[in-house]
């Protein structure tokens, strides 16, 4: 058994940013089965090698005893950070079946996954597969967001229907039977944190996960700030027009904006280069 002050399980959006913020790197272990950070963009995925990660498959996490069991080792720590994400294999399989969606309407099992579904629909139409949308236009982010998204889809010539022919599935918890409930500091219990897509929340967003990871990393350094949640995403119609959405409505705060324009269509590729150069660290973008 090896003991550390902090062990982070998962080097995705949340786990990696938690690791970057922790000052005491010598007594912190980052575990991931591949040692890669995968940045998912609108057009392509980019794998960034993380040399700091222990490349081991995690088989079990003992929350009560703060221990992690991998294929080769047992690690225990004063603090463990669970950033295992959610299992998206069903969503991946859904997006592989591209041709069956021709002249069909697609909806989401989880309305907050519409940002993924809408980008998929926009890409299908770019590739000549006439697929439509069925949903509430992301109304959970505010009525002004919903109105802008609806206008954006109409301008992008995306068909709209009330009834879906196919439903984009919700992701499932990874390594656990259920998603993990946390408090305002993302603690499941003393010394046990959960961040990113593994937490009990309908909102599964890479950008939000990064913010959660950075917050927990700073919390482990002794900082006691309040977490400020925000949902941000960018959609691109691949015709020189994009939409940027920013909202705090899901957390009971009536602040939201949605803007369209040419510059927003360029943002996905700019973000790829930003995160590639910074090896997945969010940095100053969290201030935007």
What is the CATH C-level name of the largest domain? Alpha Beta
CATH-level-2 architecture of the largest domain: 3-Layer(bba) Sandwich
User: Treating each run of at least 4 consecutive H or I residues as one helix, how many helices?
Assistant: 6
Low confidence ranges: none
Using DSSP, what is the number of strands? 18
Instruction: Provide mean pLDDT, rounded.
Output: 93
Overall geometry comes to: globular
From the N-terminal CA to the C-terminal CA, the straight-line distance is: 42 Å
Largest sheet: 8 strands, mixed
Instruction: Report the portion of residues in β strands.
Output: 25-35%
Please indicate the count of domains. 2
> What percent of the residues sit in helical stretches (DSSP H or I)?
25-40%
Describe the structure.
The protein has two domains: 2-88 and 171-220, FAD/NAD(P)-binding domain (3-Layer(bba) Sandwich); 90-169 and 230-279, no CATH class. The protein is globular. Strand 1, helix 1 (13-21) and strand 2 (28-32) form a beta-alpha-beta unit. The protein has helices at residues 13-21, 89-96, 114-126, 143-155, 206-220, 262-277; strands spanning 2-9, 28-32, 36-40, 45-49, 54-55, 58-62, 67-70, 74-82, 86-87, 105-108, 132-133, 166-168, 172-173, 187-189, 192-194, 231-236, 242-247, 256-261. With 288 residues, it is of the alpha/beta class. The strands form five sheets. Strands 1, 2, 5, 6, 7, 8, 14 and 15 form an eight-stranded mixed beta sheet that branches. Strands 11-10-12 form a three-stranded parallel beta sheet, covered by helices on one side.
């Amino acid at each position: 058994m090896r003991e550390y002050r902090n062990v982070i399980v998962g080097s995705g959006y949340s786990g990696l940013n938690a690791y970057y913020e922790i000052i005491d790197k010598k007594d912190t272990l980052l575990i991931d089965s591949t040692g890669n950070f995968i940045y998912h963009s609108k057009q392509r995925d980019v794998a960034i090698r993380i040399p700091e990660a222990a490349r081991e498959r995690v088989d079990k996490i003992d929350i009560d005893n703060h221990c992690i069991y991998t294929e080769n080792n047992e690690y225990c720590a004063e603090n463990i950070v669970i950033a295992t994400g959610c299992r998206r294999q069903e969503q991946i399989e859904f997006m592989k079946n591209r041709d069956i969606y021709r002249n069909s309407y697609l909806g989401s099992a989880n309305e907050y996954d519409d940002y993924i579904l809408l980008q998929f629909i926009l890409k299908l139409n770019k590739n000549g597969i006439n697929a439509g949308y069925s949903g509430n236009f992301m109304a959970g982010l505010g009525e002004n967001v919903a109105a802008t998204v609806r206008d954006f889809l109409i301008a992008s010539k995306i068909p709209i229907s009330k009834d879906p022919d196919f439903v984009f599935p919700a992701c499932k918890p990874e390594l656990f039977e259920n998603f993990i409930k946390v408090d305002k500091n993302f603690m499941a219990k003393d010394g046990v944190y959960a961040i990113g897509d593994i937490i009990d929340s309908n909102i599964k967003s890479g950008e939000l996960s990064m913010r959660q990871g950075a917050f927990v990393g700073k919390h482990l350094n002794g900082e006691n700030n309040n977490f400020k949640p925000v949902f941000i995403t960018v959609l691109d119609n691949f015709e020189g027009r994009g939409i940027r959405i920013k909202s705090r409505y899901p957390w009971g705060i009536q602040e939201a904006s949605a803007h369209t324009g040419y510059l927003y269509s360029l943002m996905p590729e700019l973000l790829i280069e930003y995160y590639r150069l910074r090896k997945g660290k969010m940095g100053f973008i969290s201030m935007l």
